């Protein structure tokens, strides 16, 4: 509000052009006027020089005094000058050329627009799925990503989890119980069978991919969110591809951070601390049932 005031030009570009053209025209007319005065003085001087002083008295081609030829020649030059000022520069100068060019461009633009209208009429584009995915698709829901990731964000290898942490599985079960769980086709295939008491939404580009009865198949992320819109908290449960696409639309992340670096072929996207705020963090040390230390961390979108 109190920022530095920007200098604004007092006249715009178009006005500046008009002023420049006017200055040029004034100069041209002024030089024509000076030429006219010189022509008058020069003519009188030549007449006086010849008739009074006697310069070139004997020079009379075809019986006509030399100054008559000189004055006629000068007059022709003057007329040519006047023609340039009042016709060539006025009608065929740079400004005129630019105007003609602009007119041509405008004509072409109108023609192209007409052709475009004709093409649109004859071959209309399909209107379905034009709307981009927006976070408002199912805004009443709190979209939650649930994931277990190593320190290096590793989440899986050869379409399997890399660790077995029973408390993490229990937490997953408790949080997702009774909810819609959205997953990529590969993650779905990594399960021996669908998980009980959860509505599975599987995303695949394959139109005729076969899923067991009760499992919902969709062909894109937007449809997955739509299929889960009756749920107040649908969970996106992976894998890497789906997390990456769903993260911009998520409101919450339930992360199990496994405190180890793992070799993996799938990873979780970086959690940007400018976007996400950590709201809870519970540490769990390794024990006889858990091979690694880990922490349950909750993030909310800022
Ligand atoms: N640590 C964890 O918490 C955790 C959780 C889940 C999974 N994982 C691990 O993650 C790995 C699997 O992840 P991933 O990235 O390989 O696969 P994924 O995300 O589970 O599934 C990828 C598949 O989803 C479909 N897909 C992706 N984007 C799509 C879109 N925009 N529209 C339609 N279909 C789309 C495609 O199926 P099509 O074949 O039909 O094209 C694609 O091949 C496994 O190792 C798994 O164990 C780890």
From TrEMBL:
Keywords on record: Membrane, NADP, One-carbon metabolism, Oxidoreductase, Transmembrane, Transmembrane helix
Any one Gene Ontology cellular component term annotated for this protein: cytosol
PANTHER family: DIHYDROFOLATE REDUCTASE
Protein's pathway: Cofactor biosynthesis; tetrahydrofolate biosynthesis; 5,6,7,8-tetrahydrofolate from 7,8-dihydrofolate: step 1/1
Organism: Formosa maritima
Domain DHFR, residue spans: 142-301
Entry-linked PROSITE patterns: DHFR_2 (PS51330)
MF (Gene Ontology): dihydrofolate reductase activity; NADP+ binding
EC number: 1.5.1.3
Alphabetized Pfam families for the sequence: 2TM, DHFR_1
Gene3D superfamilies: Dihydrofolate Reductase, subunit A
Name used for this protein in its record: dihydrofolate reductase
Function in brief: Key enzyme in folate metabolism. Catalyzes an essential reaction for de novo glycine and purine synthesis, and for DNA precursor synthesis.
GO biological process, one term: tetrahydrofolate biosynthetic process
